[in-house]
Write a structure and sequence with these properties.
globular; mainly alpha
Amino acid sequence: MAHVSDQYMISVLRPFVAATGPVLGGLRDADPFRLGRLARRRAIQLENAPADPPPETPARTRGQKIRRGVRKLRHRALDRLATSRLPGTPRWSVMSPQERDDWWVGRVGRFTSAVASIPGIGGALARRLPVSDILGLAAQGLVICAIAGEHGLTKRDDQVRLLGTVLFGRDLRPGEYGDPHDEGVERDARDLTAELTTTSGDQHDGKLRALAPAVWRMGRSLFGLHEELDRRPRGRWWWRTLANVPVVGALASYKSERSGLKRAARRAAALAAQGGA
């Protein structure tokens, strides 16, 4: 088996890490039902509410009683949202690193599973490529970078080292190979994110639609390191075996990738807590 050089691996991982900024931002803020926005608004209302609110005027008519009941149900639902685990809410700010790590595993895992079900993702080329492996790679890389950020490991080359260690078992020294912010890296990162970086902040639905092809391209970029892919964290052997069986194969493939994602997350969290690879 041919050996991928450290320099080449770093040249692939640097644009990937650079592209995780807008992609993780899009995944963090992805909120098709605007629940996060409602939760943050309700949290602000609760913070600014008077400690001793004035008593409500008694409802006299049937219509007033119905409207009051609906308003109370709405406030109760919003109160639960305000204490939910969503970025920007008070609960998020006091969550432990472990809780945030778990949130990222869930968010990225669910999203990439949804992407895998999109007809035609990746175009005609995808018919000759293993979609599950490519999206599994993207998911693991994104989660590793997200966890690194949650643990304060934000420098680009630190995340490159972490990816090299967790995904490929390599001890990379990116500091020996040029500038992680040079124009070539930035250009390749823009190619990966494409529509996502050209969508304005208020075009929420457009960002959601742009996330899927961006994640696909990021996974495909890592798939270029195919000589090293057998080293990445994998799911339990029985899920990998069942993935080749008709009927149950799709579920087994999902379970295998999910298990591998959790293993990558645990390894990344342990290394990030120690300051990196």
